[in-house]
From TrEMBL, chain A:
Chain segments annotated as transmembrane: 20-41, 61-85, 97-122, 142-163, 184-213, 225-253, 274-296
Protein name, entry field: Branched-chain amino acid ABC transporter permease
Lineage: Bacteria, Pseudomonadati, Pseudomonadota, Alphaproteobacteria, Rhodobacterales
CDD domains: TM_PBP1_LivH_like
A GO cellular component annotation in the UniProt record: plasma membrane
Keyword Cell membrane: yes
Organism: Oceanomicrobium pacificus
TrEMBL record, chain B:
Pfam families listed in its UniProt record: ABC_tran
UniProt-listed CDD domains: ABC_TM1139_LivF_branched (cd03224)
Protein name, entry field: ATP-binding cassette domain-containing protein
SMART domains per UniProt: AAA
Alphabetized UniProt keyword annotations: Amino-acid transport, ATP-binding, Nucleotide-binding, Transport
Segments forming domain ABC transporter: 2-226
Molecular-function GO terms, alphabetical: ATP binding; ATP hydrolysis activity; branched-chain amino acid transmembrane transporter activity
Transport is among the record's keywords: yes
Amino acid sequence: MTLPLFIEQLLNGVQLGVTLFLMASGLTLVFGVMGLINLAHGSLYMIGAFTCATVTGSTGSFALGLGAGVIAAALAGALIEWSVMRRLYARDHLDQVLATFALILIISEGTRYLFGGAPLWLDVPDALSGAVALPGGAVYPLYRLAIIGVGLLVALGLFLLIARTRLGMQIRAGESDREMIAALGVNIASLYTIVFALGAGLAGLAGAMVGALQSVRVGMGEPVLILAFVVIVIGGIGSIRGALVGAVLVGVTDTLGRIFLPELFGLVLPPSEATTVGASLGSMLIYLVMAVILAIRPQGLFPANA
Amino acid sequence: MLELERITAFYGASQALFDVSLSLGTGEALALLGRNGMGKSTTIRAICGLTPPRDGQIRLDGQAIGGQPSHRIARAGIGLVPEGRRIFPNLTVAENLTAAARPGYWDRARVEALFPRLGERRGQYGHSLSGGEQQMLAIGRALTTNPRLLILDEATEGLAPVIRQEIWTALRRLKDEGLSLLIVDKILAELLPIADRCTILEKGVSVWSGAPDGLDPATRDRFLGV
């Protein structure tokens, strides 16, 4: 294990974490404020990626594609909230899971119908291609650094939105007593639509940015969705700060675990066994971390209503 | 300004209000009386749209508000200080006074002038306040929506006498400034002096209405005694 490799993998972990944060922040807000489990959040991520790839492909501008991806996901989110979700708030979580699972299938098949089964490819924009030399001898792709930067800016913006603005106060008030905030004159239905669209837009942003690193294909959102659920459970449901800390923790643990656990086991086991044991332990490491954290703090690291 | 005409309301299958009528003039204070479980809180929930009435008319300044979503009713000019205060525990005092505010005479500064303790506690979270402070905050929060009618459900319940007096003094001042009040309170000796008229509920029916001095011992004994 060399220092440059470690730095590179650490940054990969942070970049995964930041992407997870963009997904998890919307998920945690929707769950915390509206009490809604939304499995279709991964579909919004996919909508962002497909829109970005298509618009970038036809206009040649990645910036336009990125903006279109965010807007398309936010609009899709608003439409889903208005047409489906608001009928589910009073239902129990199982009904919500069932309905949003149906949405995954509908959106996935719809996308397959529109775009076909073959993945789309989105290139890293020229301005962000290339690599940066980092202290310690590591060389790291500029585009991945840009994703980290954008994610941290969004995190800061969300903190300010929740902590400083009236909308943020109403969101937090709705988390603790939604009947009361309505009785004071706040239109809770439009507040929910805004929160849902905001979360959807952030998922779309994540999908659009990641689209240039991976292939853009149907079903790309679900693996990220599962990790995002782990993140919000670790971080504390409803907490933006928890989502950020949880996301970086999960991203770094997952990335470093997969790379370095086989090497670590190689110190005590024969190489072939070390690879097998290390790889399987690496892929379940975040779940072990989650179990330990929940054993110590059942409400997660930053419970929203503490 | 507020008229209820033959309201009925249900919690699921069980009927809580059978026939409630009352009226309240602009600038007046109405005491809504009755023993526990007779429908006072349900009447308030019906007015505010939290338990929408199934039948009957509710009018605010002639405009029908019965059955509208609760945020519309609030925006029509009704401020609610609910039973149990229900301040937002995870918001600071200042945020409680900002989250639902609508423009008008009452803003955070004026509420803090009315209840100076709230100014001293501005940055504290709602859950860290004492019961009396939470009650002041609940009243202040309703005032920041700049209502024309303020509804108070058990606003002095469980508070020390000196705090109760502070709240009654504030309510009297609000009334003198022209705000209409609808008040539910257990302590008649403190409630009746501020009231212009009373309506008594029994088993979900409004059975008596009149001026406070018309509440003779027989009426009190029949409807309000324990």
